[in-house]
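Please decode residue identities from the backbone states below.
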């Protein structure tokens, strides 16, 4: 059942940050199901998915989202700050569930301890090299799983990176079709 805010988000941002309705619903439902205490969002842009992740944590009654971005290419390619996503999160009354960090994603990930986040969501650098580095480090810091956005259509980098990592690490993620597609890898118990 959708909350009033989830319905409002869906109506206001039908393709929030390039994410289709099924992808938003899948990610929201996944966070509700796995009940993570800590979620890391790598790549924030305008903060649309930040709201969906935070809403799932709020509705779980627990958890915290750390949202990391260097904000150098966000909002039309101009250098920016976390002001736009921070305002969006604030308007949605989700600020208590979110912390913003301005940093290069790989530098931030490398500074984190192994298994320091329950779940990591990546929608950041779409080059092969950037996506590969983000996913490799995310697999190290995630306890439960990793999701990667944009594995179909517009961006070849995330798709190729996930495929290469599957082959190198002998793991198998699930590719979920959607507007731009999601790769999801859940760790074994």
């Amino acid at each position: 059942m959708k909350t009033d805010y989830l319905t409002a988000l869906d109506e206001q941002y039908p393709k929030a940050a390039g994410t289709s309705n099924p992808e938003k619903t899948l990610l929201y439902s996944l966070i509700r199901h796995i009940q993570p205490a800590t979620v890391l969002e790598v790549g924030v842009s305008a903060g649309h998915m930040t709201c969906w992740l935070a809403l799932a944590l709020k509705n779980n009654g627990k958890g915290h989202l750390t949202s990391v971005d260097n904000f150098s290419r966000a909002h039309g390619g101009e250098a920016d700050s976390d002001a736009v996503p921070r305002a969006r999160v604030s308007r949605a009354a989700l600020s208590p569930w979110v912390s913003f960090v301005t940093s290069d994603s790989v530098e931030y990930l490398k500074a984190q301890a192994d298994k320091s986040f329950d779940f990591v969501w990546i929608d950041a650098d779409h080059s092969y090299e950037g996506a590969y580095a983000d996913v490799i480090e995310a697999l190290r810091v995630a306890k439960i799983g990793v999701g990667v956005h944009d594995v179909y259509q517009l961006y070849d980098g995330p798709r190729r990176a996930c495929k290469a990592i599957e082959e190198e690490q002998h793991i198998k993620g699930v590719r979920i079709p959607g507007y731009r597609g999601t790769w999801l890898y859940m760790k074994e118990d």
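Observation: Residues 13-17, 74-79 have pLDDT under 50 and may be disordered.
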